[in-house]
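Whether sequence alone determines local backbone shape is best considered at the level of individual chains. We regard such an encoding as a compact summary of how the chain folds. The sequence in question and its structure tokens are set out directly beneath this paragraph.
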Amino acid sequence: RDRVGRSHTPVSFLPRMPGLVGVLGKAGQAMVRGLPRSQRRVILREHVPRIGVRGEEVQTNTTIAYQLVAKGQAVVPNWQTVRQITDSEGNILERTPEFLEVVERQRTFFDPFWAITATMLSFTRKRFGPTRRLAVPIDRLEIANRLLQVTKVKVNPEDIVFASAKQQSINYTGYHLVYVRLAGGEGLEGACYSDQYARLRCKVVHQNTRAMW
């Protein structure tokens, strides 16, 4: 297989990755499986050898795209459901593909590998309104750097296992209240927003009452 995806992999022969149904859900699998053959493009969230660098939009086959998304290494641009959140001056604050429907219940089990996948892909539908919960893609080094800047608390990036967000502003300015959970159970909340590449940008972060720093 080459990087432009000339290998034609039948959709029915996609690999069944362990735990994927529970994390991505059937809608998530359908999202990746349903990519048109000529448009299997993914945006890389990190450098992937022989594929591309972070932020690059690459074309690949369904199997590779499926694995990259499942591992949290890439997102699939879905131009049909992309919504843009702008501020009062018309600047785009958030451009997030709403990939799939999220189960409302909080998942109690988080395997570190699949936690990254779950938080990256768990976007909610618009029907939940302006207070809907959004998942924040985990860029662990970036989150740790932001927390260090604002709170002066040094966090080990490998300890960040979960980040969820609840949109606060009724006028859709794109700011979220974000809760970051660490491996030891500690937590931190802050007002953040995502830029057009869904990277976490923290403006103000304060210690959560549940935090144990």
About this structure: The first helix runs from residue 20 to 33. The beta strands are 41-44, 57-59, 74-75, 82-86, 92-97, 133-135, 160-167, 176-182, 187-194, 200-206. Residues 82-206 form one domain.
